[in-house]
Amino acid sequence: MARQISGFNFKHIFIFIFSSLVYALCQMLLSNIVMQDDLWRKFAVQLTAHYVVVVVMCAADYNLLLFLNKHFPYSKNVLYRIIADLVGLTLICFALLWIFDLMLYKILLISAAGLPPFTTKFALGILTNAPIMLVFELIHYFRSEQKAIADSEKAKREVLLFQHETLKAQINPHFLFNSLNVLSSLIYLNPKNANKFTKALSRSYRYVLSLNQQPAVTVAEEMEALDSYIFLMQMRFENAFTFKVHQSGGIENNKIVPLTMQLLMENVFKHNIATEEAPLDIQITIGNEHIIVENQVRPSSNADKSGIGLKYLKKQYQLYGKEIAVEHTGNQFIVKVPYIEP
């Protein structure tokens, strides 16, 4: 493995020094051909001067690239980026030539006799600097493509992990034990409801298993699956909570991350106390920009801290560049879920 100091790889430093030296030599040859000068006259001085110019241009171009990536990225407007590149190259060449002329003629007091005019040097400067900027742009482009591919693969792995964790949460022993315990009681007390409970449990699991190839689902699909889950909770908690949905029309096809609503409901029941004497109020508002889940805060002292929870949902929405907003206003806990696809 190549040795590194302060994050710089010796291999990359060597490649830069060697390539910039070769490029400076090529530019020196071109300059001597254009100016019809003697190549071997003060060869070392000429090569050193050209090498300094190339290195300074590399530093200037690199900083220009960082500035353009921040303020004029290709993703916004390709034409503006190209124009910004050309303007930046022009300003860099003009500024460097002005500084070098100042050093040569004003500080070192070298005579301008026999030296090319400013316009000729400026043209040579543009000719020298353009390939450097082009190489930087190509390197940035290919690195961006590699990063995009890596991010895409990471996002796929995150989605698969989310689905796996979600499935584990659905089949964890506590959930199964509670569901089967309720079902066992219903079989003797209310066979009709036992049959409904079994079908709802089956629909809930079927929905989870159907999500293997679905990174997003519609609001309508999610709410339909939530109905089965809420029915299971009603059979378990009976009159210990109230549940209402407020919905605007025309947004049923908006998309969200699968099982968002069910996981939020799990959090509500997991972290709060619900009794028939003081029912827990839960409301869902499906708006134009967000789905808002709101519940009363009645902390449970022995809340189960396992499972996916809100932090996993936040991570999933961040993969789409979205943020889940969480508000804790006194005795109310509010979660605002954005749509990932309107």
- Tell me the name of the CATH class of the largest domain: Alpha Beta
Structural class: alpha+beta
Strand content: 5-15%
Count of discrete domains? 2
CATH architecture identity of the largest domain: 2-Layer Sandwich
> What is the CATH homology-level superfamily of the largest domain?
Histidine kinase-like ATPase, C-terminal domain
General description of the model:
It is a single chain. With 342 residues, this protein is of the alpha+beta class. The chain contains nine helices and nine strands. It has helices spanning 10-35, 43-71, 78-107, 118-170, 173-189, 191-209, 219-237, 260-271, 309-318; strands at 4-5, 8-9, 217-218, 241-247, 255-256, 280-286, 290-296, 325-329, 332-338. The chain has a five-stranded mixed beta sheet with strand order 4-6-7-9-8, with helices on one face. A hairpin with a 2-residue loop joins strand 8 (325-329) and strand 9. Helix 2 (43-71) packs antiparallel against helix 3 (78-107) and helix 2 crosses helix 4. The radius of gyration is 33 Å and the shape is rod-shaped. The two termini are 48 Å apart. The model is unreliable at 1-8 (pLDDT under 50). InterPro entries: Bact_2-comp_sensor_kinase, Sig_transdc_His_kin_internal. Residues 163-240 form the Signal transduction histidine kinase internal region domain. One of its GO terms (cellular component) is membrane.
In short:
With 342 residues, the chain is an alpha+beta fold. The protein is built from nine helices and nine strands.
